[in-house]
Write a structure and sequence with these properties.
Length: 239
C-alpha cells in the first residue's frame, strides 16, 4: 500500500506540474530503450544549478517518470521547478511522451543496433511555456565492450506554433567501470528563431541494478548567449 501510494503521488505530481523533454539522465537526448513492462523508472534531480540571461536559478526538483505499460512501450512524464535567485519561480519543460522500441538490439541484449521513436506533447507551464507543442524523435543506440552510443533526430512544433528540428548524440564509457564517463552534444534550431548548441560532460555512477547516480556540467549557447548548468541526480526503479 505504501509503495502504491508513492507511485500515485509521483504520477500525480508529474501530470499536475504544467512545460520540453529532458530524457535519459543527465542528458538532453535519450536512448533506444524503455522500462520493462509493469515497472516504473524514476529520474530525479533534487537540486541543480543554472546560470543564463535570467541570472542564477536553482532547479528543485526536476523529475522524469517512466512507466513500461506493454512490451517495448513506455509512457514518460516530465517537468522541472525553477527558483530564481532574485526571487520567484516557474514550472517549465513539462511534457508527456509515448516511447517505443521497434527494433530490439544490443540495449535489449540482442545483436545489432536498437531503434526506437518517441512522440511528445509539450505542455504549458506555470509562469512559463505558454501554449502547447509537439516533438517526434528517431532513436538509435548501440552498446559495445568499450561503451555505448545514442543518436536522436527529429522535428518539433514549438509552443508558439513555429517549426524546428533537433539532433543529439551521446557517448558512454563501459558499463563495467565503477565511474562511467559520459558526453553529449546537442543542436536545436527553431525556424525563424534562435538556434542552440550544447555540450555536456559528466559521469554516471552505477550502484546496483536499477539504481545509479549522475553528475554533469553542461555548457550551451542559446542564440549566441551562454547557458551554464550543473546537473546531479539519481535514477531508480519502482517495481
Amino acid at each position: 500500500m505504501i509503495l502504491r501510494g508513492v507511485k500515485c503521488m509521483l504520477l500525480a505530481g508529474a501530470v499536475a506540474w504544467p512545460g520540453a523533454a529532458f530524457a535519459y539522465r543527465p542528458f538532453d537526448s535519450t536512448d533506444a530503450a524503455v522500462a520493462e513492462e509493469g515497472k516504473w523508472e524514476v529520474e530525479l534531480a533534487p537540486l541543480n544549478w543554472r546560470h543564463n540571461d535570467d541570472g542564477v536559478q536553482w532547479i528543485s526538483p526536476a523529475l522524469i517518470l517512466n512507466y513500461g505499460f506493454a512490451p517495448g512501450w513506455e509512457l514518460v512524464f516530465e517537468g522541472r521547478n525553477t527558483i530564481f535567485d532574485r526571487g520567484g519561480g516557474e514550472f517549465s519543460d513539462a511534457a508527456a511522451s509515448l516511447k517505443t522500441v521497434f527494433q530490439e538490439g544490443s540495449l535489449q541484449d540482442k545483436p545489432g543496433v536498437s531503434l526506437g521513436s518517441e512522440f511528445s506533447v509539450l505542455l504549458p507551464g506555470i509562469r512559463a511555456d505558454d501554449g502547447a507543442g509537439l516533438a517526434w524523435a528517431f532513436l538509435a543506440s548501440d552498446r559495445h565492450d568499450w561503451g555505448a552510443w545514442h543518436f536522436n533526430l527529429g522535428p518539433t512544433l514549438t509552443r508558439d506554433g513555429r517549426g524546428g528540428m533537433f539532433a543529439g548524440a551521446i557517448l558512454e564509457g563501459p558499463d563495467s567501470w565503477p565511474l562511467r564517463p559520459v558526453a553529449e552534444i546537442r543542436y536545436e534550431k527553431t525556424y525563424g528563431g534562435e538556434e542552440m548548441i550544447a555540450g555536456l560532460a559528466g559521469v554516471i555512477i552505477p550502484v546496483r541494478g536499477g539504481l545509479s547516480f549522475d553528475i554533469a556540467l553542461r555548457h550551451a549557447r542559446q542564440g549566441g548567449r551562454p547557458d551554464e548548468q550543473l546537473r546531479a541526480g539519481i535514477t531508480f526503479d519502482l517495481n
